[in-house]
Specification:
With 352 residues, the chain is α/β, with parallel strands linked by helices. It folds into two domains: 2-158 and 314-351, Medium-chain alcohol dehydrogenases, catalytic domain (Quinone Oxidoreductase, Chain A, domain 1), CATH 3.90.180; 161-292, NAD(P)-binding Rossmann-like Domain (Rossmann fold, 3-Layer(aba) Sandwich). Helices cover 25% and strands 26% of the residues. The protein has twelve helices and 17 strands. Strands 3, 4, 5, 8, 9, 16 and 17 form a seven-stranded mixed sheet that branches. The chain is globular and about 60 Å long. The two termini are 20 Å apart.
Length: 352
């Protein structure tokens, strides 16, 4: 076992505090990573505060991890000490079900093991995430990071990037398509960048008129204030695909009406309570679809990292020290970040 330090939540109502714990020894197929940066995802907040009613305490959040390989197991060939590597939202899966066999580990029929708040196979061990100084992960679930000029801004790609890239790829977004993105937050700003890089005409839908300039800078061709009925009506029946990134309950009907016949709106935001039920008539008269998508498999996540490196895509971030994580959570709730907090893990040692 190796000694680790991090920040943990110990119950739903208390702030995250420094926490010392143990990581497993590096096995033959393991990679140990010294964590340099960890993105802050809204899922971290949901979990720390048990808003999904499934948190295992103590909880060390963090699944947008980039760092440097500090040790490898005897059977590892794809990574060596000194490599820059990443870890996303999952660190294991059953590896033998149909989904795992197709490289869709996020849909593992036996349940994937989350980077945090996941019970490891074979026991009740609680996985502990990236708000820590190092992590040990099986080599099959470690990603290669090739664009390292702004490594901190690469970290959010491991969740926000793949969460938006995967549905855009699944629904074949590309040139000649008009694609809507709902919401310009941590997920939405990545969706705009990636969809634009795929060649789509991107329309950003927001409730905040003051986000127009940013949306255009990020790659949107048009910006629509979704509270303006006239602006919404101008896009009726015109969109091939919509990626809805909003993580708060809201009516889906106004966005369904924007889809062409056979168009799809895919939901990737995960609200703490359900959306109002949509009208069936908005779906059946145009054969429209509502779908969902969950992160991405390991190979697809690697493809996303390579795509983003090729196109020079990273997240827009604000760097914080680990001691400021509780204030960052409160600011996230107010949407007071453009567009992703990233923890400089060097601050963890300074805080110790």
């Amino acid at each position: 076992m190796s000694n680790a330090i991090g920040y943990a939540a110990h119950d739903p109502s208390s702030p995250l505090v420094p926490y010392a714990f143990s990581r497993r020894d590096v096995g033959p197929h393991d990679v140990q990573i010294q964590i340099l940066y960890c993105g802050v995802c809204h899922s971290d907040l949901h979990t720390a505060r048990n808003e999904w009613n499934n948190t295992l305490y103590p909880s060390v959040p963090g699944h947008e991890i980039v760092g440097r390989v500090s040790a490898v197991g005897s059977a590892v060939s794809a990574f060596k000490v000194g490599d820059v590597a990443g870890v996303g939202c999952l660190v294991d899966s059953c590896r033998h079900c149909a989904s795992c066999g197709e490289g869709l580990e996020q849909y593992c029929e036996n349940g994937f093991i989350g980077t945090y708040n996941g019970s490891a196979f074979g026991g009740s061990e609680n996985t502990l995430g990236g708000y820590s100084d190092h992590i040990v992960v099986n080599e099959q679930y470690v990603l290669r990071v090739s664009h390292t000029e702004n490594l901190a801004a690469v970290a959010p790609l491991l969740c926000a990037g793949i969460t938006t890239y995967s549905p855009l790829r699944q629904w074949n977004v590309g040139p000649g398509q008009k694609v809507g993105v709902v919401g310009l937050g941590g997920l939405g700003h990545m969706a705009v960048k990636i969809a634009a890089a795929m060649g789509a005409h991107v329309v950003l839908f927001t409730t905040s008129p003051d986000k127009t300039e940013d949306a255009l800078r990020l790659g949107a061709a048009e910006v629509v204030v979704s509270k303006d009925k006239a602006q919404m009506a101008a896009h009726a029946n015109s969109l091939d695909f919509i990626l809805n990134t909003v993580a708060a309950p809201h009516s889906l009907d106004p966005f369904i009406a924007l889809l062409k016949r056979d168009g799809t709106m895919t939901l990737v935001g995960a609200p703490a309570s359900p959306h109002p039920s949509p009208s069936v008539f908005g779906l059946i008269f145009k054969r429209r679809r509502i779908a969902g998508s969950l992160i991405g498999g390991i190979q697809e996540t690697q493809d996303m990292l390579d795509f983003c490196a090729q196109h020079g895509i990273v997240a827009d971030i604000e760097m914080i020290d680990i001691r400021d994580i509780n204030q960052a959570y409160e600011r996230m709730l107010r949407s007071d970040v453009k567009y992703r907090f990233v923890i400089d893990m060097a601050s963890l040692k300074a805080d110790a």
